Amino acid sequence: MSTQVLTYLFVGASFALYIGIAIWSRAGSTKDFYVAGGGVHPVVNGMATAADWMSAASFISMAGIISFIGRDGSVYLLGWTGGYVLLALLLAPYLRKFGRFTVPDFIGERYYSQAARIVAVVCLIFVSFTYVAGQMRGVGIVFSRFLEVEVNTGVIIGMAVVFMYAVLGGMKGITYTQVAQYCVLIFAYMVPAIFISIMITGNPIPQLGFGAEVTDGSGLSVLQKLDGVLLDLGFSAYTAGSKSTIDVFAITAALMFGTAGLPHVLVRFFTVPKVSDARLSAGYALVFIAILYTTAPAVASFARLNLVDTVHNTAYDEAPEWFGNWENTGLIAWQDKNDDGVMQYGAGAALLPAKPIFDVDGTRGSHGERLLNNKSTESANEVYIDRDIMVLANPEIAGLPGWVIALVAAGGVAAALSTAAGLLLVISSAISHDLLKQTLLPRITEKQELLYARLAAAVAVCIAGLFGIYPPAFVAQVVAFAFGLAAASLFPALLLGIFSKRANKEGAISGMLAGLVFTFAYIAYFKFVAPELNSAEYWLWGISPEGIGAIGMLLNFVIAMTISHLTAKPPATVQALVDNIRIPGGAKAAENH
After folding, report:
1. What does the alpha-carbon distance between residue 227 and residue 235 come to, in Å, rounded to a whole number?
2. Rounded CA gap, 332 and 329, in Å?
3. Any transmembrane segments, and where (predicted)?
4. Which of 124, 254, 375, 400 has a CA 20 to 30 Å removed from the CA of 523?
């Protein structure tokens, strides 16, 4: 059976499973739609949280970006995993004890203000739509290669599937779908990693293979060989970092605190029966997440080694089949700069930036390559590689069986769709519950609220699709921006709401708006308004757009606390609420809430 047929079977079967689960667990009430009825077992919730968390950025892009930038890519590993410790310790149990449906629900009641609720909704929508852009791009990449359809068509198919189980099932359907998606994505990630680890090092455990000797008889470890290979090609050493210390610190902090402020992750802790279950869920989620995250550095290094071995100094007409397959997607390309018919891969840009990759007519050169209209003359490098393809192409590069390639396709789609569904649900919940039911239309019935929630989810799916068709950057970069926005806007309001009785509505509103506007403006300026200035010499204190959320968060804290101390204290009932959330003595009552 061909790889193409296997891919259709694997992806089609997974789609049928997800839609079947959505129909089986269709939400019948707003509580089902928002928090899955509040009765999800901690292990199930931990697995669903892991799938919700391990998006296309984790599955597709994280190892890819580490593969290209080496040690500097560790900020993603440190930030995204470290953030879960903060989430488990500082937020999850207290929010569950509060016992509401959404993050804006908590902020609206804690800060005794509809304005605060609306600002939280705005922040949530900014964060969620930024995040979902990365997921839909991931869906498009998987479909464009493995199902051989246009990227835009792949995004539309992904939208249709998400629409089915997010709109029908709500949180109840998404929870059980995400359990299935976790099983698919982790199996799809680990199987090729084990295969390739055995091929390169002889060790079946990728985490150990990462530090083992390669089996070519050189006596070098994987990292030593990779350093040598890359230095020979003009790159910097894989184990040498190029980012400044302050930028590494800022990016890691933005990712950590952004993790603890992500609304689609926080809402998962509203779905368990008891406060203690919220802590257990976070613990289980960490275990499930660690399986993939400890494997990613090995996958990244193996992929880069295999790429160099199969591409550099290879005649184009003798190139492996995978190169041509990915070339047809526009995510890899070759420009024969010296007209020798041999692919030269090395340091430097193969293409001019900010230009379309292929000619409109897709004409072919004398060697059969897709002709490019944007050749860079600044370097000898002839090969362009989109870093988002590294994990997906890895099994093909390594020559693994067709069923493994098909499995990776199904895993990539599962990772992207699981997070996209969670994000779309929090957007619809924020609109239907916080904006309509709690603010603009308080007299609507539960049936009407459920209808509005489904309509809001449908609209959000369409907007998410547009982001997938017109993505602003690499998947991991887009997601990093979302984390920065979450850290700068929602996290301080949540933390102060739990641990500070002095924090009031004026401070929270001012802090959220200041953090959001500052961070968004900084990212937009360097990424869209003046991308030619996006370098360390122009950044504020040498901090990149990916890390500026840490400064936005500090700005939020300072403004929130300053204004809170200059204005009236919160009412006594609110101060008592803070005590009740924090003090264990009220846990039993809260568990019965």
Report:
1. 9
2. 7
3. 6-25, 75-95, 115-133, 153-170, 182-200, 248-270, 282-303, 403-431, 451-470, 476-496, 508-526, 538-559
4. 375
